[in-house]
C-alpha cells in the first residue's frame, strides 16, 4: 500500500514539475547517448580494419574516460540545483506527516523513473546516431562507406551498468542532503538570505594580479608541450583569478554603487543592487562557474570548427613525396667521401624494391642534413654533458649549401665563415652565432619552406632554427663536436633523406606494400633507416584528426548543455528564492511592469558579466591555444582565429536566447 503511494507521489512529481525534471532528463539522455556511442566506436570491428583505425580506437578508448568523467560531474552538478530548489517541497512533506524515511522512498522511485526514462531514450538515440557517427568518421578518414547494423550489445550493457551506478550515487547524495537538514531548514529551502558580504580590497587586488600573471604565462610560453607545467599553472591561475573576480571584485563594485546615494536610492537601482549584494558570495561562485564553462565551451567548439574547416589536402604539406627514406649514417662512416655513394645506394634500393612489388618509380631525390639539440648561450648555441635532463633546448637543423641548392633549385650566395639562418618561432637576433665553439657571421633568411622537416610541430616542443652552412665538412665537424660532449646515448649523426615519387596510378595498397618492402630490404642490408609512405602517414593523421575532433565536439556539446542548464537552473532557483520578496514589493505598490523591468535589469547584469570576462580570457589565452592547435591543424592554424571569432559570436547570440527564456521563466515564477 505504502509503495503504491510512494510510486504515485513520485510519478505525479515528475508529471507536474517539467521545469525541474525535464532539464535533468535531457542531461541524462545526452550523457547516456554519448557514452554508448563512444564505447561502441572504440570496439567497432569495421573501424579497426580502416588504415589508422586502431589508433583512432585507442584515442576514443582513452577519451571515453575523460568524457564519462565530465558526464558524471555534469549530472551531479545539475542534480544539486534541482535538489536545492525542492528543499521547501520536502519540508512541506515533513510538516504533513511524512518523516525523512518516507521522503527517501519517494526519492528512490523518482530516481528510478528518471533512470528508466533517460536510459531508454538515451540508448535509442545512441543506436540511431551511432551509425551516423560511424559514417561521419569514415568520411573524415577517407574510408569507404559501410552498410549494415552497427549495434553493440556489449557497449549497451556497460552503459546500463555504469549509469545504474551513477544514478545510485545521485540518489545517495540526495538522501544525504535530506538527512542532514532539519525540518525548519527544509521549509526555508533557499530563502535563507546571506549576511551582506564585506568588500575585501586586498583579495580583489590579488584576483586581478593572479589573472594577469596567468595571462602573462600564456603569452610567454613558447613550447606548450615541453612547458606543460607552466600551461597547467597558467590555467590554474586564470581559474582562481576568475573566482576572485566574481566574488571579491563584484562585491566591491556593488558596494561602490551602494555608496553613491543619489544613484543607489532609485527604484530601478536599489532593488536589483540590494538583491544581488545580499547573496553575492553565493552568486559569485555560480557566475565564476558559468564563466569557466562558457570559456571551455567556446574554445572546444572553435577547435572542432577549425578542424572541420581544415582542407583535406593538408597531408600534402607534410608528405610532399609518396614515400621517403631517412637513413641514419653509421658512426664513423665518412659522409664527405661517401655522400654520393650513399645517395646512389638509396636510389638503387628504391628501384629494386619497386621492381620487386611491381610499382613504377617516377623519381628519387636525396639530400644530406644534420639535426641536433643545443643549449642557447650568450654567443649562440653549445652543448654540455647531461643537458638532456630537464634542460630547455633548441633544435638546430643544418644543411650545406650544395645540398640545399640541389633540393630547392634556389641559388644562394655565401662567403666563407657565413651561415644563413631562419627561426621558425622568431628570427635569430644577433649578427654573429657560435655553434659548437665555432663562430660564424649570421645572415638572416626570410623562410626555408622548401626545406621543411615538420617544423610546425617541432617548434611546439623546442625552439627551431634552420641553418645553411658552406660545405659538408662543416656539418661533419659540428656533428663530431656535439657527439664528443653528449656521449653515445645522445649522439646525432648525419642523415641521408630520400624523397620517392611513384607513378600517379599507384594504388594505396601498392604504396603501403612498397613502403613495408623497402623497410625490410634496408633492414636486410643492415641499414639504420626509417621508411614511411604518404598513405600510412595520412591514415595516422586522419585517425588522430578524427578521434580528437569527435571527442572535442562531444566535450564541447556536453559543456554547452551544462552551461545552458546551469544558467537555467540558477535563474529558476533564484526565482523561487525571490518570489516572496517580489510579492512583498507588489503589496507596497510596485506594478507588474516595474517588477518586470527590475527582473530584466537584474538578470541582464548577472547574465552578461560571465560572457564579457570569457571574451577577455579568450583574447588573453589565444596565443597559447593557437600553439596547441598546430598539432592538429599543422599549416592551416590561421583558420583557428576565424573559428574562435565565429564561435564566440554564435554562442553570444545563443546566450542571449537563453537569457530571454530564463528571464521569462523567472518572471512567471515570481508572479505565481
Give a description of the structure:
The protein is 69% helix and 10% strand. It has 22 helices and ten strands. Strands 2-3-6-7-5-8-4 form a seven-stranded mixed beta barrel, surrounded by four helices.
For the structure shown, list the relevant keywords:
672 residues, alpha+beta, 7-stranded mixed β-barrel, 22 helices, 69% helix, 10% strand, elongated, transmembrane helix, transmembrane
Give the CA-based shape.
Answer: elongated
Number of helices: 22
Work out the radius of gyration: 32 Å
Quaternary: single chain
The total of beta strands comes to 10
Quick structural gist:
Residues 63-180 form the ABC3 transporter permease C-terminal domain. The chain has 672 residues and is an alpha+beta fold.
Secondary structure blueprint with pairings:
Layout: H1 2-16, H2 18-42, H3 45-48, H4 53-85, H5 87-95, H6 100-140, H7 153-180, H8 183-188, H9 201-220, H10 228-259, H11 261-264, H12 267-278, H13 280-309, H14 314-318, E1 323-328, H15 335-356, E2 361-376, E3 380-382, E4 394-400, H16 401-408, E5 418-423, E6 432-435, E7 438-444, H17 455-461, E8 463-469, H18 472-486, E9 495-502, H19 508-524, E10 529-533, H20 534-587, H21 592-633, H22 639-670
Parallel strand pairs: 3-6, 4-8, 5-7
Antiparallel strand pairs: 1-9, 1-10, 2-3, 2-4, 2-9, 5-8, 6-7
Helix pairs in contact: 1-6, 2-4, 2-6, 2-7, 2-20, 4-7, 4-20, 6-7, 9-10, 9-21, 10-12, 10-13, 12-21, 13-20, 13-21, 13-22, 15-19, 20-21, 20-22, 21-22
Amino acid at each position: 500500500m505504502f509503495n503504491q503511494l510512494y510510486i504515485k507521489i513520485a510519478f505525479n512529481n515528475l508529471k507536474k514539475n517539467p521545469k525541474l525534471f525535464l532539464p535533468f532528463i535531457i542531461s541524462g539522455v545526452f550523457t547516456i547517448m554519448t557514452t554508448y556511442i563512444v564505447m561502441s566506436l572504440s570496439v567497432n570491428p569495421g573501424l579497426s580494419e580502416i588504415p589508422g583505425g586502431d589508433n583512432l580506437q585507442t584515442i576514443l578508448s582513452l577519451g571515453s574516460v575523460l568524457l564519462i568523467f565530465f558526464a558524471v560531474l555534469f549530472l551531479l552538478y545539475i542534480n544539486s540545483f534541482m535538489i536545492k530548489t525542492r528543499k521547501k517541497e520536502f519540508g512541506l512533506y515533513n510538516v504533513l506527516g511524512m518523516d525523512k524515511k518516507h521522503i527517501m522512498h519517494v526519492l528512490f522511485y523518482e530516481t528510478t523513473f528518471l533512470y528508466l526514462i533517460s536510459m531508454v531514450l538515451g540508448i535509442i538515440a545512441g543506436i540511431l546516431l551511432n551509425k551516423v557517427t560511424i559514417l561521419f568518421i569514415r568520411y573524415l578518414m577517407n574510408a569507404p562507406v559501410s552498410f549494415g547494423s552497427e549495434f553493440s550489445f556489449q557497449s549497451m550493457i556497460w552503459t546500463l551498468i555504469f549509469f545504474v551506478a551513477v544514478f545510485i550515487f545521485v540518489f545517495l547524495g540526495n538522501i544525504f542532503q535530506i538527512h542532514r537538514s532539519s525540518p525548519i531548514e527544509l521549509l526555508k529551502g533557499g530563502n535563507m538570505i546571506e549576511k551582506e558580504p564585506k568588500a575585501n580590497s586586498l583579495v580583489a587586488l590579488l584576483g586581478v594580479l593572479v589573472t594577469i600573471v596567468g595571462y602573462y604565462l600564456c603569452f610567454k610560453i613558447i613550447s606548450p608541450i615541453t612547458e606543460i607545467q607552466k600551461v597547467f599553472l597558467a590555467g590554474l591561475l586564470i581559474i582562481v583569478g576568475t573566482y576572485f573576480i566574481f566574488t571579491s571584485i563584484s562585491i566591491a563594485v556593488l558596494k561602490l554603487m551602494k555608496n553613491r546615494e543619489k544613484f543607489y536610492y532609485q527604484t530601478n537601482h536599489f532593488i536589483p543592487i540590494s538583491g544581488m549584494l545580499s547573496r553575492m558570495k553565493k552568486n559569485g561562485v555560480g557566475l565564476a562557474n558559468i564563466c569557466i564553462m562558457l570559456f571551455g565551451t567556446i574554445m572546444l567548439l572553435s577547435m572542432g570548427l577549425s578542424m572541420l574547416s581544415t582542407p583535406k589536402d593538408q597531408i600534402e604539406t607534410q608528405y610532399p613525396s609518396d614515400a621517403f627514406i631517412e637513413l641514419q649514417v653509421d658512426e664513423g662512416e665518412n659522409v664527405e667521401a661517401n655522400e654520393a655513394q650513399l645517395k646512389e645506394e638509396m636510389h638503387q634500393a628504391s628501384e629494386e624494391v619497386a621492381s620487386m612489388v611491381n610499382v613504377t618509380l617516377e623519381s628519387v631525390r636525396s639530400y644530406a642534413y644534420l639535426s641536433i639539440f643545443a643549449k642557447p648561450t650568450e654567443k649562440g648555441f653549445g652543448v654540455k654533458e647531461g643537458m638532456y635532463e630537464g634542460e630547455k633546448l633548441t633544435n638546430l637543423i643544418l644543411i650545406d649549401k650544395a645540398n640545399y641548392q640541389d633540393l630547392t633549385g634556389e641559388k644562394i650566395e655565401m662567403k666563407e665563415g657565413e651561415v644563413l639562418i631562419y627561426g621558425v618561432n622568431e628570427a635569430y637576433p644577433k649578427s654573429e652565432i657560435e655553434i659548437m665553439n665555432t663562430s660564424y657571421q649570421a645572415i638572416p633568411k626570410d623562410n626555408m619552406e622548401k626545406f621543411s622537416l615538420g617544423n610546425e610541430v617541432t617548434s611546439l616542443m623546442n625552439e627551431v632554427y634552420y641553418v645553411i652552412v658552406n660545405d659538408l665538412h662543416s656539418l661533419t665537424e659540428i656533428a663530431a663536436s656535439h657527439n664528443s660532449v653528449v656521449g653515445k646515448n645522445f649522439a646525432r649523426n648525419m642523415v641521408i633523406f630520400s624523397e620517392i615519387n611513384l607513378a600517379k596510378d599507384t594504388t594505396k595498397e601498392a604504396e603501403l606494400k612498397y613502403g613495408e618492402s623497402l623497410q625490410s630490404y634496408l633492414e636486410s642490408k643492415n641499414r639504420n633507416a626509417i621508411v614511411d609512405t604518404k598513405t600510412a602517414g595520412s591514415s595516422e593523421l586522419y585517425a588522430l584528426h578524427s578521434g580528437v575532433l569527435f571527442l572535442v565536439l562531444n566535450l564541447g556539446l556536453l559543456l554547452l548543455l551544462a552551461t545552458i542548464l546551469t544558467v537555467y537552473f540558477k535563474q529558476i532557483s533564484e526565482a523561487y528564492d525571490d518570489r516572496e520578496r517580489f510579492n512583498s514589493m507588489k503589496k507596497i505598490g510596485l506594478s507588474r511592469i516595474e517588477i518586470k523591468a527590475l527582473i530584466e535589469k537584474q538578470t541582464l547584469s548577472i547574465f552578461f558579466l560571465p560572457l564579457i570576462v570569457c571574451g577577455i580570457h579568450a583574447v588573453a589565452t589565444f596565443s597559447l591555444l593557437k600553439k596547441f592547435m598546430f598539432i592538429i591543424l599543422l599549416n592551416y592554424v590561421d583558420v583557428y582565429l576565424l573559428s574562435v571569432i565565429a564561435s564566440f559570436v554564435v554562442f553570444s547570440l545563443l546566450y542571449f536566447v537563453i537569457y530571454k527564456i530564463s528571464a521569462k521563466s523567472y518572471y512567471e515564477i515570481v508572479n505565481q
